[in-house]
Design brief:
- With 212 residues, the chain is of the alpha/beta class.
- 48% of the residues lie in helices and 13% in strands.
- Strands 2-3-1-4-5 form a five-stranded parallel sheet, with helices on both faces.
- The longest helix is centred in the C-terminal third of the chain and has 20 residues.
- The chain is globular.
- The two termini are 29 Å apart.
- The structure holds ligand Z5A.
- The site of ligand Z5A has 23 residues, from helix 1, helix 5 and helix 9.
- Ligand Z5A binds next to helix 1, helix 5 and helix 9.
- Belongs to the thymidylate kinase family.
- Pathway: Pyrimidine metabolism; dTTP biosynthesis.
- One of its GO terms (biological process) is dTDP biosynthetic process.
- Its EC number is 2.7.4.9.
Length: 212
């Protein structure tokens, strides 16, 4: 729809603490963009469908133990194994709405005490998002949203540390939305940000790579 024949899709990333509403909002955003005629797909990391993803899933549900560095590299590998597909989708004009990306990788691992630059290093060369939307919620409020499901990182004290790491990572292409607003308010703000981004990409904004 619109744009030039060869215009590319946008890479829209949603980030935030557990229970901030990423799943709800990314699903709604994809439906909205599709309803406007934009080719759009919903992606999420970890992608638990691959063999690397299954190792991650087993770790998150406490069925296996892994050294902190090892699991960090697996999360990164899980993004690398989808990188070329990501690039071809974007170049063919499909917009990707991605629920968690490299920032989750760095925020969660560095919150455990790993060096932040070490955490960023394996992400270098992955595609850089055109926009990162951070759904901002105090950890206490997120915890009130019913049932942390018992996965490894679903603990208040840890989520507080992750929130601080996200603040350290926040940069110019981040947009912050108050995730305590109603679902409809969040949805509207997200739609505006995403549409603006999709149009900028259609107009010829080049793809770039992390870490920038
Ligand atoms: N991780 C990592 O360490 N390294 C990495 O590289 C990556 C990830 C990629 C994967 O979790 C874990 O892996 C994650 C980070 C780590 N650990 N933690 N924590 P996941 O992605 O499978 O799960 P999650 O991201 O934590 O998602 P979630 O629990 O499903 O939460 P969510 O998607 O952000 O929220 P939601 O499901 O849309 O909403 C949660 C509830 O709140 C639900 O009942 C909604 O109806 C409700 N809700 C949503 N919005 C609102 C508003 N606005 N008001 C009121 N209630 C709301």
């Amino acid at each position: 729809r619109g744009g030039k024949e060869d215009s590319r899709g946008a890479l829209v990333v949603l980030e935030g603490l557990d229970r901030c509403g990423k799943t709800t909002q990314s699903t709604r955003l994809v439906k909205h963009l599709e309803s406007l005629g934009y080719s759009t797909e919903l992606w999420r990391y970890p992608d638990r469908s691959t063999s690397v993803g299954q190792m991650i899933s087993s770790y998150l549900s406490n069925k296996s133990q892994l050294d902190d560095h090892t699991i960090h590299l697996l999360f990164s590998a899980n993004r690398w194994e989808k990188r070329s597909l990501m690039e071809s989708k974007l170049k063919s004009g499909t917009t990707l709405v991605v629920d968690r990306y490299s920032y989750s990788g760095v925020a969660f691992s560095s919150a455990k005490g790993l060096d932040i630059e070490w955490c960023k290093a394996p992400e270098i060369g992955l595609l850089a998002p055109d926009v990162v939307v951070y759904l901002d919620i105090p950890p206490e409020k997120a915890a009130e949203r019913g049932g942390y499901g018992g996965e490894r990182y679903e603990q208040l004290e840890f989520q507080k540390k992750v929130g601080q790491r996200y603040q350290d990572l926040c940069s110019a292409n981040w947009k912050i939305i108050d995730a305590c607003s109603t679902m409809e308010d969040v949805e509207k703000q997200l739609q505006e940000i995403a549409l603006d981004c999709v149009k900028t990409c259609q107009e010829g904004k080049p793809l770039s790579c992390l870490w920038s």
